Amino acid sequence: MISLLTIIFTVFGYILFGYFLKKTNIISNNIFKFYNFLSFNILLPIVLITNFWNISLPKLLSYNFLIVFFGTGITIFIIGFYIGKVFFNLKTDDCALFGLGACFGNSVAFGIPLMLSILGPVDAMPYMILVLFHGLIHFTYTTIIIEGYRNRELPSFKFIINTILGLLKNVILFGMFIGFFLNTSNIEMPNILRNILIPLSYIAMPALLISLGIAIGGFKIIHNISQSLVLTGLKNIFYPTIAFLTAKYIFSMSQLLVTTVTLAAALPSGTQTYYFSYRYNSLQQIITSNIVLSMFVSFFTLSFLIKIFGY
Question: pTM of this prediction?
Fold first, then answer.
């Protein structure tokens, strides 16, 4: 419980700091814009390349484990997409972002320290598999849907080229692919580069959370409460429930894998979804509102699950 409280209050502390900066108007909007650009286009790729380059890839891979987590996640994405289209009359590209908010969790800044503190470094290795593929899978198909929809009226050749360029311009995918390539190529990180990148990676996550707080300070969250409640319900309740039932009763996984996949599914909505709303200028108020609400609700849902699983 102490670890959970510490992580939540640390994350919220950075967000509240950014919110305070925005509300007090201490810093001009031009500085805020430059700060957002620096956070999302420089620091975020650095932390992703560094983390994926240095992560220890497990030698044993449970395909059923991946199928349960990502199959359930994609199902939740589809449900969120459908709700956005039918009930909120969102455009297709906005529906894709709505679906991403429903299934993508805060697996790095929140999830890694939480799972390590609960499971320990050895038992947490299956979770690290999920972290490795989490963004690569969800961000890739979400980007393809958004870029495909926005380029739909172009001729076939230009449509394909623009969609590919859209993928390449996505700094999250870029950072993950580069880091993963360096890792699997067994290229050692030079010490001089390590001394630069690792300290910068420590700065990046707080910087992104502060940027999120700044964004929240510019929005009236209460205006988007219905959409945020739907997203939070899908992410914090439906996703872990379906993942648990599938892992335990359909695939009959071990207790460790059932615990891991359920807790991973129950993580609050990822702050990196705000990058997508920022990059594509889509659903920024809904996404920021959902991130805050989901984080708050996760304190109770994760506490309940941790107690149920006996940790």
Answer: 0.77
